[in-house]
Amino acid sequence: MNRPLLYAMLILFFFLQLLFSDFASIAGAKPDLGVILVVFVAFFFGAPNAFEAALVFGLLKDIYASGVFGSNAVSLALTALAAGALSSKLSRESRLMQPLAVFVFSLLYFALLYAVSAAASMPPRISLDEYMSAVFIPSSFYTAAVSLVLFPFLIGKFGVDEEKEYL
Amino acid sequence: VRNQKKRIAQALAVLSIIILIILTSSAARIIRINITDTTSPALKAAHSFLGLLDGMAPFAALRTENNILRDRLDLLTRMAEETQAVRDENDRLKALLNFKKTIPYASIAAQVIGRDPSNWSDSVIIDKGTANGIKQDMAVISVRGLVGRIVEAGNCSSKILLITDPNLKVGVMIRRNRQGGVMVGRGAGRCKVVYISLDSDARPGDKIITAGFGSVFPKGILVGDIEKTGRDQARLYKYAIVKPSQDLSKLEEVLCIVK
User: ipTM of this predicted complex?
Assistant: First the structure.
């Protein structure tokens, strides 16, 4: 795996998220570029690489966000492990499977984030079901839609042969 | 090798959980403030650069529409756009200055240079810090209404927790009937006022203002309009979904109220 390229993508995606996410929001929903990158790495380069990418992206998020410090890193890292574990069971080259997987792992990430924040010092004041309908589901849909563009971009950049076994 | 990698991954997972537990203390705050502070000039530069690019974006469409006059049109339109961008900024700053004169509190104007990268929390980073007189827990407003409060103040940058963040609570009241409630962020650009009494006639369109309870938010600042009302699950209180008067996703300049 091309590690310098991975880190370049991590930084690029992070700064796009930091500077543009609010402008790109639709009815308050924002795409999560970190989830897309992590699922991509998990699919084509395995859980350990995805875990590493998730920790870095999550920690960057934690520095600039205002929630519980470490919550993004832990939630995204666990999502990366789940995506890595399931990647061999999914047809990752399918153009339908990719956004579907991004949607599901995005939901998992949000659920973990909610659980971690609830377990730490900041109990959420809005119920999970309300948050699901207001934020998590719309944002997961949006993330999945954006992945339709970003997955082919990443596949091209990393020169991934979708038929080849990388794991 | 694969098993070894798995073990390393598991160890790192455990380690990150431990880090999480440790860093929920004040150490996390110091790390965040220092890193945000150190990177704030770069953020400001990137923000200005992107603002410039944003202003030039319409040129692309014009270029494709008129190939014959492309070069000349590019130049003239870019100049017009840049002038317009400067004019817009001037108008915004003038409005902010006029507004600053009309509000009964001393305030510090600041520019937004970064936004929350997470879908979970809602905050923005501004280009003013303790060196400019910013302190933690200052209320922050814009020309249109309440924005949030300062949660972290670095030397030359600060973080504002927005009213749409689920961890921010504000004592509010309905301007028409003076009935009170507690407003919490709901995410997705909306807030929720809870603990409105059942006999309240709160209705969509009612203006919500700050109640002035506590020491952070002064009384009477416009927060937003009620979009819809309902009863909570236990049916003991009413709630209201509020659309903030300031579109927080397009926030560019703010005023931090000096206590």
Answer: 0.74
